[in-house]
User: Which sequence fits this backbone?
């Protein structure tokens, strides 16, 4: 695998950081950010290079051969960026979601809405089947984000399952790994584990995530190779359906108490702001900012290429 220049490493690390920041927010997917930044397919194929051949060489301590068999010049800076964002922003984003939820959701709503249009360029031929795939993905995500979170155990096997499912969702644009943790009743639990450096909990979540990543990415790689346009169309639909979750204004109908004794919203419905005031105007500006961020990133990619 060819080495990259230092500026390219830094750019990839920044892209990884943005993916990691998105993954912390329940409702926004790191896969969406990867699509916006133009590295989604390369990321899928790079992760797929982590196979049994690599593990065999690594186990035999043939480090140089193992490293040359994978796309590490791409993966390493991206993974470093994702981890840096996850470890450094977990507490900040948790505080922002509690203190300024409408502004945070408004920014990400504009970002995801804009990315739906920008990702459309990856569909090479717009046929009826592509529009049907968008509808299928959109309906599936819409109903997924309407599900009610549940209280769940803290056993090791369940933490493994949470890591497995969350990483699979993280890879898919539109489906947030963090939101899967919300549905499984483990979002705040995971944030606390990160902030408190709970090694045992983080280890089980990580093992589940690694197993899920290495297995599910092969399915996606095969789909992109055999059914590229249909797969991309489904991913666009998933992003459209996810807008239900990140609409800023909600009314809580029912709540439940999670494993940490917190009162957590269980069933929420989207509502329209009752009146136009300073908060609504500011939220709209944050939506525009999110929209413009995607346009700027796409323009930057266009100029670079």
Assistant:
């Amino acid at each position: 695998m060819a080495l990259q220049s230092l500026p390219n490493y830094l750019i990839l690390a920044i892209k990884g950081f943005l993916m990691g920041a998105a993954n912390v927010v329940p409702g926004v997917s790191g896969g969406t950010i990867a699509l916006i930044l133009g590295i989604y397919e390369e990321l899928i194929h790079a992760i797929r290079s982590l196979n049994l051949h690599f593990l065999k060489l690594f186990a035999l301590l043939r480090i140089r051969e193992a490293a040359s068999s994978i796309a590490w010049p791409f993966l390493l800076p991206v993974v470093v960026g994702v981890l840096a964002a996850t470890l450094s922003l977990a507490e900040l984003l948790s505080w922002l979601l509690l203190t300024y939820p409408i502004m945070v959701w408004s920014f990400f709503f504009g970002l995801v809405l804009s990315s739906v249009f920008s990702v459309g360029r990856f569909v090479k031929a717009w046929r009826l089947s592509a529009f049907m795939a968008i509808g299928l993905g959109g309906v599936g995500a819409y109903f997924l984000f309407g599900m009610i979170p549940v209280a769940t155990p803290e056993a090791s096997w369940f933490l493994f399952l949470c890591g497995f499912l969350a990483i699979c969702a993280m890879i898919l644009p539109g489906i947030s790994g963090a939101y899967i943790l919300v549905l499984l009743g483990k979002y705040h639990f995971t944030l606390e584990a990160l902030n408190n450096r709970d090694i045992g909990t983080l280890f089980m979540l990580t093992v589940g995530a690694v197993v899920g990543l290495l297995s599910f990415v092969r399915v996606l790689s095969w789909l992109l190779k055999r059914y590229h346009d249909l797969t991309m169309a489904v991913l666009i639909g998933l992003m459209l359906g996810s807008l239900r979750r990140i609409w800023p204004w909600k009314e809580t109908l029912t709540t439940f108490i999670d494993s940490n004794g917190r009162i957590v919203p269980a069933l929420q419905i989207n509502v329209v702001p009752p009146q136009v005031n300073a908060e609504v105007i500011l939220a709209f500006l944050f939506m525009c900012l999110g929209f413009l961020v995607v346009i700027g990133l796409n323009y930057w990619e266009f100029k670079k290429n």
Observations:
- Residues 166 and 207 are 12 Å apart (CA to CA).
- The chain has one domain: 6-304.
- The first strand starts at residue 250 and ends at 257.
